[in-house]
Amino acid sequence: MKFLKITFALLLLTSCSSDKNIGRNIQKDVATDFLTKDSNISSSSPSEKWWMEFNDPLLNQLVELGLKNNKDIQVANLAIVTSRQLNNINITNLLPSGGAGVGRQRFSSPGFGSNGVSYDLYQSTFDAAWELDFFGKNLDRYKAGKLRFLKEAQLYKASAIRITSEIAQNHIELKRLQKQIKNLQEISNLREQLSAIAEQKERNGASHKANIYKAEIDFHFASSSLLEAQTNEKVLTYRLAVLVGTTPENILEILSQPNGKEIFDYSSGLVPVGLKSDILKRRPDIIAAEYEIDAANFDQSAQFKEFFPSFNLFAKIGGGSKDLGEMLNNGANVKDIRGTVSVPIFSIGHLLAEYKISKAKAKIAILNYEKTVLTALEECESQLARYINSLQIEKHSKHSFEASKKILQIDENKKRLGVISKEEFLNSKIAELNSENQMAQKKSESLLGLITLHKTLGGGFEGYEMHFEKDRVFWKEKK
To answer: How do beta strands 334-342 and 464-469 pair?
Structure first.
């Protein structure tokens, strides 16, 4: 009994000393160049639901469907559930294990008397075993499992940011293509008219045959551009169906809903951007990499403690009787309570190899973290420069389009006065449509850059918390 009291006291002391916050503490492992140097965080970070800044109900509906039905999102959800259950398994290693059983034995000996001797013996037993975690080996594995559970939650957020970004990008690309297809159809019609004018002029002797061929080339080029744009529209539509997690037929029905928003109706103004230190505190892939460092360190610690002796308690209590009804009434006639100490003598080579593997994995986790930080910083700097320049390019494209519109107005007046021919006016109209298509292209590029910038900065999903319902995880906004 005294031995049991000492055992429980030591176990309690070990648990209390090891039960520290499982917060990320990577300063001692990671080079200082990869750590946040400025603790001041800009208050102008991207909004939680950044896609709502576009004020597009259809886009909001597509994102909502994607967060619910996208297959990558569902896999990430199940990864969280799996990690949680694996952590529950680790918890059981800290607790005693036991089992109860009931048995019946039949004894028979024909050597005594004419009928021999035979009787039944009913037995009930309870067996229990408990590994006393004096050195915190199992506790370390539990902490590693908990950190990997938190890591999966961050990977879910990273996946959600990626999916919402891709949905928004495909939606914007579709808007751009729809505008360009409309203009390309008109350009193709105008090219056909120009081809007819060239044929008429050649018949009248006012032009040579080379102009007919040139007009045909321009017409077929315009028709090919239209077909290419229509093909890309279908490809983007089907890609959007995959992202939303629905069939092509359903996505066509969703996209056919009345929505008057065109590519030029979106705002592509500069989004408020925080400091670089924001990235290290916001991006879920970096937070997940931090969790993995600590989890790998706990794995290494647990593996090192495998070299230490393990202490176990075993207990067996049972009773028996010839009558089934009296089996539990006669009290326990089998009692066995003992403790054992096992030392790994002949498995040192195996344990040493396992420890070296865990040590290497801890170093890999650090290298992956540093790589993730470098990638994040590179993405932030590059995307910010790309986005700012795209706004300037969009501005120049807009001025170019406005100039082409003015030229078209001048040519329209000239045509009305008979100063220029219909052919010259049609060419001016085509130039104006091409300029508008160019502006639509640059507008979509700046919008895509804005979406990518939100993704790069880890925008969204910081204000959500995880909830479990049976074997399903769902996310609620923090209040």
So the answer is: unpaired
| 472 phi, psi to nearest 5 deg | -130, 145
Distances (CA, A) of 164 to 69, 212, 269: 12, 49, 20
Question: How far from 32 is each of 29, 254, 381, CA to CA, in Å?
Answer: 9, 50, 20
Residues in the chain, total: 479
- Residue, of 106 and 253, whose pLDDT is higher: 253
CA distances from 165 to 152, 286, 393 (A): 20, 18, 22
Q: At residue 208, what is the residue type? A: H
In 3-state terms, what secondary structure has residue 107? Answer: strand
- DSSP characters for 360-399? HHHHHHHHHHHHHHHHHHHHHHHHHHHHHHHHHHHHHHHH
Give CA angle at 167 (163, 170), nearest 5°: 135
With CA atoms as reference, report the closest residue to 435 among 269, 262, 187. 187
Q: DSSP characters for 28-54?
A: TTS-GGGS-------S-PPPTTGGGGG
What's residue 336's pLDDT? 76
Select the more confidently predicted residue: 201 or 327.
201
Which DSSP category does 136 fall into? -
Residue with tokens 């996505």, as numbered in its chain: 251
pLDDT (tens digit per residue) in 303-323 = 999 999 998 888 888 776 666
Name the residue type at position 4.
L
Tokens of 391: 């706004």
CA distance 292 to 294: 5
- With contact defined as beta carbons under 8 Å apart, do 191 and 224 qualify? no
What is the C-alpha to C-alpha distance for residues 178 and 170, in angstroms, rounded to an integer? 12
Strands 97-109 and 472-477: unpaired
Question: Is 24 within 8 Å of 428 (Cβ atoms)?
Answer: no
CB-count exposure of residue 49 (10 Å: 0-12, 13-18, 19+): middle
Of 319, 316, 329, 326, the C-alpha closest to 124 is 319
Cα(322)–Cα(107) distance, integer angstroms: 11
Indicate the SS3 state at residue 205.
Answer: coil
Across residues 121-139, what is the average pLDDT?
84
User: If 0-12 CB within 10 Å is exposed, 13-18 middle and 19+ buried, where does residue 467 land?
Assistant: exposed
* Structural class in CATH, domain 22-94+104-459: mainly alpha
3-state secondary structure 301-361: HHHHHHHCCEEEEEEEEEEEECCHHHCCCCCCCEEEEEEEEECCCCCHHHHHHHHHHHHHH
